[in-house]
# Entry
Amino acid sequence: MAIYENLTIEKGMYNPGGYGLTKTLEKLDPSENYRGTSLEGLDAFQRQLKRFDIKVSGAGSDCVEKFFQTSSSAALFPEYISRAVHQGMEQTDVLKDIIATTTHIEGLDYRSIASVPTNSEKSLQVVAEGAAIPETAVRTQENLVQLTKRGRMLVSSYEALRFQRLDLFTVTLRQIGAYIATTQLADAISVIISGDGNQNPADTISAATSGTLAYGDLISLWNSLNPYQLNTVIAPSNMVASMLTMPQMQDAVAGNTFHSTGKMITPLGAKLIHAPNMTSGKIIGLDKNYALEMVIAGDITTEYDKLIDRQLERAAITCTAGFAKIFADAAKVINV
# Structure
């Protein structure tokens, strides 16, 4: 009999040293042991779902009550919720298009590093024989990264959900994940524009004509980022509309790309991210490879005690994260 069929799952597995359930299960039942078998490709949590014959997706998905048939299967329920929420975050998340790196921490205090190169430091000069090599200073930031907890309270009872299909319940959980991703994007935009508390707000460029966005303003944005690349543009609804109606967006290539795929591009080839909640009249241009660091404290957290012992009732689903600027001049803002 395989190891995964003999494991006793309990709620204490959720937080031994900050590991979480799946990592704890992987230590006890490594996936590498299943190479070349019918279970290859499944992680330790997915093998437990198979063990208890719990189908969480598709037309033949089980009802919520399937999780609560045994104490071990009930202990899997919080992880199922976390994964469904994470799916929603991934489906809605555009942070991957503006984040240079992601740092995972276990505590709540984190101090990032930053470098503020001068214009001469951005181009490497010839070093004469015996001469000192020019330096670029990298220092820790004065202030800690501000971490924000985002989440939703799941309010229901086991009786209300027991006969609901998990496939339908997953849709609700994915929507919670979408809400979290949307608010995290708002947090990232705020840090880009106003800074992360270390006196590093983004430089601003005024539109040539107040209240009107012109193609020349985008050229000015592109030029001001040198030596960084303008590969990402973030804009609110009215600014997106202005860009999409520019004559330069009506050429055959750009128009065909938008009409055939629905993917929006700017006349300069940067990826255009629609941020409806962003302040109207502002446009952010950045080099996503150098501008922003995302800091995540732990992973998606669920109150597993209530979910297991009390069978739902009220349980918080939260994610704690913050953002720090790496190279402050790798992002600029147009005020229209």
Observations:
- The CA atoms of residues 207 and 336 lie 5 Å apart.
- The chain has two domains: 3-97+145-190+300-317, 195-293+327-335.
